[in-house]
Structures are given as structure tokens and as C-alpha cells.
Amino acid sequence: MYHFADSGENKSKQKEISAESLLNLSINFADSTNCNVATPRLISGTGYSYLGQRKILLSQVCEGNGMANEQFRLIDLIDDMCEGKDVFFRSVRLVEDIMSHDVKTLTLDDTVKTCGKFMKDKKIRHVCVMDPPTEEGGKPVFVGIVSGRDIDRQISPYLGKIGEENTDQKAIRQPLTQIVTRQPKSVSPETPIPDMIATMVDNRVDMVPVLVDDYLVGIVTASDIIKIFVRLNTIRQLCANVEKQQQKPRLADLASGASVDLTTLLSSALRTVEDVMTEQVVWLEEQDNLAIAMDIMQEGKFRHVPIVDKEGRLTGIISDRDILRYLPIRSKQGQVQGACSAGTRDEVFRSCLFDVAPEDASLGLLVKNIMSQEIVHVLPTCSFYDAVKMLHEMKISCLPVVDSEKKLCGIVTATDVMRGLLAAYKLTAKSEV
What we know:
By secondary structure, this protein is α+β, with helices and mostly antiparallel strands. 36% of the residues lie in helices and 14% in strands.
């Protein structure tokens, strides 16, 4: 797979390696330590294929590290990464290097019920909605995204129960054209990874479609971004012996323009959960109701709110999706909830999903009857990389942080991890100036 060194007449030629191959190398690192990561592959099911053609001359990678251009071997590249020479961050730079090609799609004619089952079966939280080609040989056109939250908002809490109404069945038979989010935030394969992360964090979205000329070629999810830290941790573990021998760098070293081992710098700066957690946590008590929880989430733009008892001990957590499962399907005007425009979503956080009549009985429900009580939590001294691995492997979006008495002292979310990676790329860019 990797052709770093040639013999004979080819010996003097420059060697090159694609960014995707270099990423695959880090995936192989992960495989060697039993980390579960997905292997990139060409997109299927959308009528369009994309494989980035960007190449990185291996001589360019090696030149800045004082390495010979000739007879470069795979083991040399591994050594280079273990010595923290920023091969990873300098090579995995664009969306095409990390995007998922295996995109699960549905059409505008598929129903809410079909989409909900599809998401459950495929274990995904977002579905890209396509408009089938109108002529033979044409390509499906990307229309928008339906999220698990959109589906939850259309399923009545009384569906299949004694209180079920005719409108409940009508809601799940709606075609996706009624609820799809059109013209969502998107990126291209050539978008720099920091710009993509900033787009996701600023707009508080968990997934962005990757488009080329308005055709879908891939997606990037928060999970894909977290995987980057999983891979970095694999490199860090493989290079533990080298790291112990090196003097720990400081952020001041980077600011002064000194040569910095970025992988080791991250290990030094992001040691424990305490280094990245949000300390000023907004929380609720068990006797608070759904209306209060919705107000807090909208005001603070939160997706999760911890629940504590009178002594401040963590007893549960409530998410926006928990709330959506208890809201009625009708809006204030008595209409079945339809799709929201992108502008509406941006104006007030969750304004569309939380659209419910102020007198609705669901708003009086106590959070203790809705919250999740089986909580995965960590101590402030928990390793940052262990926390990231938990988020990735358990497919969760947040980890409450508690002290030895289980009193709440912070929270770590997938967004915090994304911000950490964004900072890492900024450090890389600064070190190149």
C-alpha cells in the first residue's frame, strides 16, 4: 500500500503519499491497540463518488524535520510521528481527510415512521434527504437533513397508548418533505478542518454535509471529530517511552517561537478532565418542571442539564431529546408541526423544536420523572483521553464531572472536545508562521 522507497532507476524520484493514506496509517495505529475506528471509503448510495486527489510530497513532510528525501521507509514515518514532529496535524488538514463516505440517505417521499426505524436500525442520528433524479442517468440532488430530534418532535408521547389521537398516526405518516431542514450549514472536501469545526461549534450542529457542486459526497459528524483525538491518543500511547524522555513543553514555548512537539504539548496541556471541563454548570432540581428546563436550555443554548438533589449531589441528567419525547405534536396554531426554516433555527435556540402552547399540560411535568438516572460520570482527575474514549465508545455527548461525594463540579461535552481540537489546529498554524 505504501511505496516510500524505490530501487534502481526510480531511486531518485520524489516520493509522495496521499493525506488519506497517512490517515489510514493512524487508523492502523488504532487497530494495533484495539481502538474501534472506521476505515474511510468511497461514498455509496448517492449517485456520486469523490476521492480527494490532494497529494503531499513526502519530501516536503520530511524536509522540515531534517530527514533525508531518499529511501524513506514506513518505520521512519512511524518514528517521526512518535517523536512528535506534527506529521498528523500537518497532513490531516482538510475535510476530505476525515469525512465519512458511507452516507445513509432517504428520499423526500419516505415517512417519519420509516425514518425513525431507519435511524434505529443503522444506529445513526442524522439522515441526508435526497431528491431522486428526474431523468435516467441523473444524480440524486441533496435536499437537506433530518435529525433524530426532528423525528422525536413528530412522535406523540401517547402513540400506541390509550390517549392516542388520530393526529398521532397522521404525524408519523408525514413525508420527510414536511420536516426536513433545507439548506443546512455545509462544507466542501477542501474546507480546512478548523473552519469546519468552527462552523459546527458556532451553529451548534452535530453533523455537516460535504458537498461538491451541490452534490453530496460525504458527511462529518461530531463522532468523526472525536475519533481524531482517539487516534492521537493511540499515537501518544505508542510513543509513551519517547515522551517520558522528553522535557514537557509549555504553551509559553510556542508563543516565543520555540520548536514545539505538538503531540506532547497536547498531552501536557490536556491531561485531565479538569483541563477542559465547564466548571460553572447550570443545573436543575428534581422538583423543577419541563417549562423551566426548556427555558434554561434555550437561554444557555444547552443540550444537557444535570439534575441535583438538595445537597448538590448528581441524581440525573435531562437532554433536549428527553424533553422532545414528552411534547405534543401540535404547534400553537393546532397544526401538525412542520419543517422550520434555517433562519428560524438560528434566531432562538430550539425555537422550532420547543414550539408548544404555554398552557400545555406537558410543561408541568417534573424533571425527576423524565431525567435519565443511569448516568455515566467521571472525576476531575480522570484522564482527558479516557473521557474522550468514553464519549466515543459509549456514543454519548456529555459526561458530568463529580467529586468524591458525587457532588456536581463540572461537565464535559462533545463540543468541549471539538473546541480542544480546534485549539490544537490553531497551535499548529501558529507554529508554522
